[in-house]
Specification:
The protein folds into two domains: 83 residues; 50 residues, no CATH class. It has five helices and two strands; from the N terminus they run ββααααα. The longest helix has 36 residues. The radius of gyration is 23 Å and the shape is flat.
Length: 152
């Protein structure tokens, strides 16, 4: 079996017929199912949060009670925003899966560990590249002049 130039990593040419190895197809289905399950889980959580958001109550509240209600509502909105962002990342992961590049590090091209993908199904970087990126971000934060110093 010779690998053809115009085929994806998972595809090979056998006597002019393109075939995807069974193991790759099974992996594709497992990953697709995992992403769809995570998407469903997040959508259910968003639906649940929307259903539990309080409708403006006509009752008068004291300042403390209003403050607690406002805080809880702000937290619910923040959670909804994070879940919606995760949905977008899962949709992007589904596109990468369909395109044959899901599970491949966008930085170095190595395969992302299955355990990492299970924990973070929309990961685009392997652990090494992710750590390197986080260290670079931390250095940028540490080297940036503090706003409070500029205000003095």
């Amino acid at each position: 079996m010779a690998k053809s130039k115009g085929t994806s990593r998972a595809e090979t040419k056998v006597k002019g017929v393109s075939t995807a190895p069974v193991a790759d197809h099974e992996r594709f289905e497992v990953l697709k199912s995992m992403l769809e399950d995570r998407r469903r889980e997040i959508q259910d959580k968003l639906r649940s949060l929307r259903d539990t958001l309080p409708i403006e109550a006509a009752t008068v509240k004291d300042a403390e009670e209003q403050s607690v209600d406002d805080f809880v509502q702000e937290m619910d909105f923040a959670i909804m925003e994070m879940k919606a962002e995760s949905l977008g990342k899962i949709d992007e992961a589904m596109r990468r899966l369909e395109g044959g590049v899901y599970g491949v590090c966008a930085e170095c091209g190595t395969e992302i560990a299955a355990a990492r993908l299970k924990a973070l199904p929309f990961a685009t970087l392997c652990v090494s590249c992710q750590e390197r990126e986080e260290m670079e971000q931390a250095e940028l934060r540490d080297n940036r002049p503090h706003e409070t110093a500029a205000l003095r």
